[in-house]
Amino acid sequence: MNSSSARPSHHRPRARHLAVLLAATLLPLTAAPASAAEPDTSAAEQVAADLCPWGYTTSSTVFFGRAGADSGVPNRDLGNGCTILDAVWANAPFADHGSFVSTVSGLTNTLRQDDVITPQESASIVRAAASSEIGTPQPASGTRALPDDRIGLVLYTVRATMSSAPEATLGALAACGYRNAEPSGAVNNFYGRTATALAPLVADAGLSVPSIGIGLGDLQNNLDGVIANAKAFGAKYVRISGSGSWTLADYSRVAATLNTVGATLKQAGITVAYHNHGFEFTAQNGVRGYDVLVRETDPNLVAMELDLYWAASVGVDPVELIKQYPGRFSLFHVKDMAADGSFADVGEGTIDFARIFAYSQMSGVGLYLTENDSPRPDGVSSACDSYANLRALRY
């Protein structure tokens, strides 16, 4: 439990009352039951067990998406390793918005009776739930267009020419319409140049850099360098990617690291983000590493950069992710998939971007960064095709 958070102190929580509640709502999250050879224990005695391994931690507030849906109430441990958010999401999916709000209201009423939260905190959580979009369908009307100033390019697409001809490459991207770019590399090594050397070239081309890609090692070993590089570009986000060899414990450790460095970066006006591939969605003992990352990171400190191609490549529906984790996806990597599973220019493949973008407000996305890992016939041509198609898209 987060000992620094205020909570009622005049009564101890009624463990049996909470245990009954949790038995009903947290069954999908519980660990494997005890074997028949082990002695039976009461619900009150079991309340000390961790029923929600890899669940939401106490590092955040009770948060249901965008700013207006953040209750500001600490996400307290309920006494058994489960938190308020674990109890809420154990009831998902929700049939509609009313069902969601009703579920939250019933849960908070019980927690208030058990002195886990105050009446004021209960009201704040219910207001946040009512202000959220959870359970509300977001149909694609076909009348909306992405704001041009939110479209950008991941410069990995044009990596073949960024090292040898950065000015010409960046100028060509600006000429076809791009206004934002996301360079990736490591501290002081972006396509063979330092941040202070590359940043003026990007600016001279008329492009802004809202986000940069760096390595986890940079965050762990050279945070001052990360901050300096982000400020050289004027970036508000720094993002990392993971490893296909990580265990669930590794994901948990990385989540803790992101929370720690995220707090320092936030003081510098920068947000750390995690960019997925497909391996994060492979379940280990029934749990996906991606879920550990999202649940164990503080939404006020850590963002997710959702790569739409990589999610779709392993059968994960981006819309379902957004419904499950509203407000967590500040950035999209907008990449398309050909019928054979290979990369395609945006708008020329099989991914239904209109359906995904209809959930933009729920997702919390602010930047749509196009990318093609294997561009044809060349990076600039591919990037410009993707830009034109994305600008023409209506959702």
From TrEMBL:
Residues 1-36 form the signal peptide. GO terms for molecular function: isomerase activity. Keywords: Isomerase, Signal. The keyword Signal applies. InterPro entries: IolE/XylAMocC-like, Xyl_isomerase-like_sf, Xyl_isomerase-like_TIM-brl. Residues 172-358 form the Xylose isomerase-like TIM barrel domain. The keyword Isomerase applies. SUPFAM superfamilies: Xylose isomerase-like (SSF51658). It holds the Pfam family AP_endonuc_2. Gene3D superfamilies: Divalent-metal-dependent TIM barrel enzymes. This is Sugar phosphate isomerase/epimerase. It comes from Micromonospora cremea.
